[in-house]
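Q: Hi! Curious about what Knr4/Smi1-like domain-containing protein looks like structurally. Here's the sequence.
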Amino acid sequence: MWVQRLIELTSWEPLRLSVDWESVEGELQAPLPADYKLLFETFGGGVFSESVYFFGPSGPPAFDFLTQWRASLSAGGDDDAYPVYSPGEKGVIVWAAAEWADEYAWLVDARNPGAYSVLVRGDVGEWRTYDMSTAEFLYRVLADEDFKPFGIAQCDLDPTFEPGRPVHGS
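A: Let's find out. The predicted structure is below.
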């Protein structure tokens, strides 16, 4: 339902990408949300409304959440509230970011597969929890003028999607 709303909002023609989710989830040692997988298969990595960078498990490094997750894991990028997710453990995996320093993530707990809270960290560094699906959260950010402080609908940006492009030299 929420993925379809995003398709309609952005007037996007679904890509129907084929992704080896078994390999991705095997590396993470945890399943990913079903609606996120459908989102990625539909849109691929890219930018919504010229402001929200949506990451996937493949593509240019700037849009590849696995590359970014591996780098965060090796750098030990934990904060006081939540560690970076380590396979088989509990922690944060970032799946999108906004132009103004917001990070959108899941709190993944390998011991409780299938339960995903959406976590959002704004520029002040404090995490907020949203008990909704990835697609619903993204839709509300883009379309709900009352979704504060993370919504962008009040910014009068066109609800568009632009696929991620390879960075020169990648």
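A: A fun detail: Residues 23 and 74 are 20 Å apart (CA to CA).
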